[in-house]
Amino acid sequence: MSEWQLYNRKGQEYFSIDSWLQDGVDIAFTTRRGGCGTGAFEACNLGLHVGDQAEKVLTNRRNVLRIFDAELGQAVCCQQVHGDIIQSVNKSQQGQGAFRHEQAIPNCDSLITNTPGVFLFTFYADCIPIFFFDPVHRAVGVAHSGWKGTMAQIAVKTLKAMEQEYNSRSGEVHIAIGPGIAGCCFQVASDLYDKVNQAFTGYNGIIKTTDSNEFYWDLPETNRQMLIKYGVKPHHITSSNLCTACHPELFFSYRRDNGDTGRMGALIALKH
Ligand SMILES: [Zn+2]
After folding, report:
1. Fewest Cβ atoms nearer than 10 Å: which of 119, 205, 220, 239?
2. Domain coordinates of the chain in residue numbers?
């Protein structure tokens, strides 16, 4: 199966993709369930920068790495500033940002690696996690693509970085678009609506207008179409059709919870 499915291993609940696991990729997108956080952070908050108690977050993070029998010190985190900078990492960056947000790679929203056992670990509450896997040159990546990252086409820039670093080819790379805020819930103001129309001419159905003249932008679909335009094969892309704002039982949502919320985690590594 090359679709997102819900898994539970060692008490940790997460979404993953069977065909990627079979190809030796450890991939997970966590839900909010099963951790030790309380209140707005109930329960599996993985963000160290959102006001939760650090010890609880680190416990949750360790449990997530344990899905793949790994240690938190094998993870690499970046500060995620809604920019479009990509960093290629290897064993020398392991542990950066895993235990302290200040030590995460600064000014960076996308991580790539071709070193097995290096876990790329990024965090989300509505922004779109985009996972990359090149089965030919054995490399993986993950991009944090919110509306700013989508405007900046960080997904395409991540592919370009993989081409440069690992000789990847867009026609060979597999993409998994994880849960994020979708077109049902991501309302945008008219000035952003105009910018989206300018930036994405020729795209199909990425913004819907309601009868009361409200605009809803479909970020996952915009990312999917931009990747296809860049040369990714449509059958190499799998999209989770789960909206984080629509599912309070499964996900934190920055917009739904007015900013007072936790973060889910996107984790990816090469097993070999
Ligand atoms: Zn929704």
Report:
1. 205
2. 4-270
Q: Which of 62, 39, 60 is nearest to 51 (CA)?
A: 39
C-alpha 146 – ligand 1 centre gap (Å): 15
- CA 179–ligand 1 middle distance (angstroms): 10
DSSP state of 223: H
CATH number for the domain running over 4-270: 3.60.140.10
Give the N- to C-terminal CA distance of the chain in Å, as an integer. 21
Q: Are 266 and 129 in contact (CB under 8 A)?
A: yes
How far apart, in Å, are the Cα atoms of 81 and each of 5, 84, 163, 214, 235?
Answer: 29, 9, 24, 28, 31
Structure tokens that stand for 99 in this block: 């235990």
CA of 181 to the centre of ligand 1 (A): 6
CA of 229 to the centre of ligand 1 (A): 26
**Spacing, Cα 126 to ligand 1 middle (Å):** 10
Identify the segments of the chain with pLDDT beneath 50. Answer: none
- Asked if omega into 199 is within 30° of 0 (cis), the reply is no
